[in-house]
Amino acid sequence: MGEKERADDLITLVVHNLDHALKLKEILEFHGICVTLEDVDCEGLPLQVSPKKVRIPVSKLPLGLKILESGDNTAAPLALAKMTGMGNTLLIPVDFSPMSLAAVKLGFLLAEKFNVEPVVMHAFTSPSYIGENSESFYSVDYADEIIDETAQADRLKRIASQELLKFKKIIVEEQESGELPSIKFSTSLLEGIPEQVIQEYCKTNNPVVVVMATRGIHKKGIDLIGSVTAEVIDACRVPIVTVPENFAPSGLMHSKRVAVFCTFTGYDSLVLRWLMRTFDYPSAKFYLVAAGDRPVLRSDSKLTQLCDYFAKTYPTASFTVSNQLGAGFDTRVSELIENEKIDLMIVPNKKSSAISRFFKPTLAHRILFEKDIPLIVLPVQ
User: Pairing relation of β-strands 186-191 and 210-213?
Assistant: First the structure.
């Protein structure tokens, strides 16, 4: 067989259905492992659903097992992202506030882990679209100036460009001091309403993740309806990571007490797989919570079954069911955070219209405004 591996030099790593086998094959090949798929003789099953043996060279077994058990947390997330059509960038929208730098720090840590390029993006808005109560991060007062709209836009663009250049210099200084990973990054200056600009960027470029800063809970009421982060969460179809004010960005990389909201669909398995590959959580404690307002009953076995499944799949982590009984959903979430000292929440989010969000905010939207805690918001269909 020449340089090709002989059949007796191959070993079956795992047996999967065709879809899962193809995905695993792509991940393994991303790591330089040759993969052969072989049919499993299952009489009566259609060919397209019959199981496949995922076979690899015996010499690559240790690495294959490491990848299979989610031990390799560097390239595997990127491979998974590529399989779902994601690009090679990570987006960090900024407004030049101190909170923006916290988002940059976390974004660069994640970009280094994903091996993608962080894009620090700022969207500036024409003064005609800025409300009287809106905060401005530019030291310019247009109230006493009578200039035409074009001149206003040109001047604002020039000022925004200068501010972005200053911010870029701060990032470079942080890299030189060792506070930020020394990785390649780029900046982008775009005109438009921030949430719309971010959404359009995500549609066009499919970033692996969007990292955004949020206000402290005592300030969130100021922009309850118009929060840029909330609008992006509810509209974008890419993972969003939120960084609360005064939160140490490096802390999220080492979170140990994580609440995961479960939908009892294939989403739950994908979420845990993504987490274990992305964040180094071999000894983290995961609290499984039903994502919904219905009461949690003692006879409810779905969470328990899911908990048992994850415990067997990821034996180095700890899984427990959140069973706060006899209280409303919001109360249960608050008690869980306080009693169990939760330091990260994983939340599913369905795309909804602005009218729907106004009358019935999504779970991610509610938690964003009511809790000062980092969120990873993952889109679901």
Answer: unpaired
